[in-house]
Design goal:
With 151 residues, this protein is an all-alpha fold. It is built from five helices and no strands. α2 runs antiparallel to α3, α2 runs parallel beside α4 and α3 runs antiparallel to α4. The radius of gyration is 23 Å and the shape is elongated. It starts with a helix and ends with a helix.
Amino acid sequence: MKKIITIAFCLTVFLLGACKTEPDAKAVKKEVLNIHDKLMIDGARVVNNRIKLDAILRSGQIKSVDDSAKIADLVLSLNQADENMMDWMHAFKNDFNGKNEEENLNYFKSEMVKIRAVEDDYIKVTRASDSVLRIYNVKPSDKMEMMHHKR
């Protein structure tokens, strides 16, 4: 009786494990491209915030030496985040075609990790720069404002 229960349990575990579906390369690629598309919009905000912070630095409105250093560091961080996105885009192979599905999947999974790192940088520098812009009573860029500029 114990043997039958053990076999039934093992069979159940095996069947449940077999039902687990892994995403295919096409699905992962689509998700990577969706993140990229979102970051293109966020990238406009990164650039606009950098321009606004640069203007504050040049305007003489700086409240302290510490603020000046903080803003200069933020400008560099915004610039670096934008460069990281450009580097990722130049290296990304949208038409990647490995020898098999597993190679394709592994490529797009590795690209997912890279684009998520870019996304994390964008979030971090955008929040920090928005905060400083508010301190200086400069309205951070919003998506509607950026969309308006594109027209």
